[in-house]
Design goal:
By secondary structure, the chain is of the alpha/beta class. The protein is 50% helix and 14% strand. Strand 12, helix 10 and strand 13 form a beta-alpha-beta unit.
Length: 483
Amino acid sequence: MNKKTFYITTTLPYVNAPLHLGHATEIIRADAVTRYKKLMGYDVFFNTGTDEHGLKIFQAAEKAGKDIQKYVDECAVLYKDTLKQFGISEDTHYVRTTDERHIKSAQEFWRLCDKNGYIYKKNYQTKYCVGCEEEKTDSDLVDGKCPIHSSVPELIDEENYFFKFSAFGDRLLELYEKNPNLIIPTSRMNEMREFIKRGLRDFSISRLKSKMSWGIEVPGDSEHVMYVWFDALTNYISTLDWLGNGENFKKYWEEGTPVQYCGKDNTRFQGVMWQAMLMAAGVTPTHTIVVDGFILGEGGVKMSKSLGNIIDPLEIIKEYGTDALRYFILKEFHPFEDTAVSKDQLKEWYNAGLANGIGNLTSRIMKMVETNKINTKDLVQNNEPDNAYYRGYKIALESFDLKSAFNHVYLEIVGADRRIQSIQPFKLIKQDLLAGTNEIIALVKILADISYMLRPLLPETANQIDSLIKKGMAPEQALFVRK
């Protein structure tokens, strides 16, 4: 019997800057879902990678004084190294928009949209934010500047190819009705509904090569390159070898439930533009788009270099460790809305949830095992736990509510701590050897259940706990040393 399949992808960060905490949030959440699905026996295809075309990248390479291909090659290596530090699954698939397979896929996708009558050419003028790689209307600007990048958009006046976005309003609303979970959370779905109802405007999907040469050439027109978003969005199917033998595309996309993670500033691209593009090319739409909120600095202000409130995820790893970063993102950050983060808050979360939580519980239980020489090597959990905590954990993960899933783990941790406090097995075993031993074994089984649930969330920690249970030993050093 064939395994059930599951496909999940992140958006592709531009390679012109190191990954920030928002990127880490999206990637680590997608990895946790990937690990959970594997634990459930699914054949999983997890895709991530780098967006390497467009004006932003072109200008970054020029500023660095490097050949552009060499520049993006170096950035891609750095990206892969950063993923390892995030604890991402080793079998993750990695796509680059400069890959030959991706280039051919993007060009064929263009041809299909053109063949079906959804691409045309015209002269136009617009304001364009390089940072967002997006056209801006006056209503999008604050004091004439992009509110995200605090920069004045460039003025574009040229002949471009356009996508007939305006033709898809009714079809998109119908898609939303058929699949009410297409965009999670519902509030983002409602925002996109209102956006569509206000009327969709056709958008430019090319740039003159004479003005911006770094991009995928438009099929049949060597004077134009594809607009970076039209190119990049096709990575979700190019990585599945859409133009090759099609086996992965059929298995994971057409016959599966493709899931896309993105930040809330990308919702329009992922939930509206990309779905319209898929319709135009005659390709099955996405099944689910999970939208993250922003990561804010102290006082609820969006993190920015100019304000000096950036928190580098690699600095968090250096201070607290990989699993601590994953804990902050999966347990303490809101799964769908904005989260304010400060360095003091990170320390508080670490000590309360990790050092005094799972770390302390593991030490208490395994110290009793080691002191009393109890054989626990066969108590590692290899099957799904049968309790209310685990059932709630599964329900939460199936709906991508990773915080709620983690909360169910901590309900069991708190319950185990209270049980130790109430029964005091370390005393009971001295009075009644059999009763005390049975109680400690029961606690080890609870710890094994907790470790099982931590496998998708904190894989290093879960491995450490399982190893201690097999050896019947307490940790030589606390799993999480208090800061």
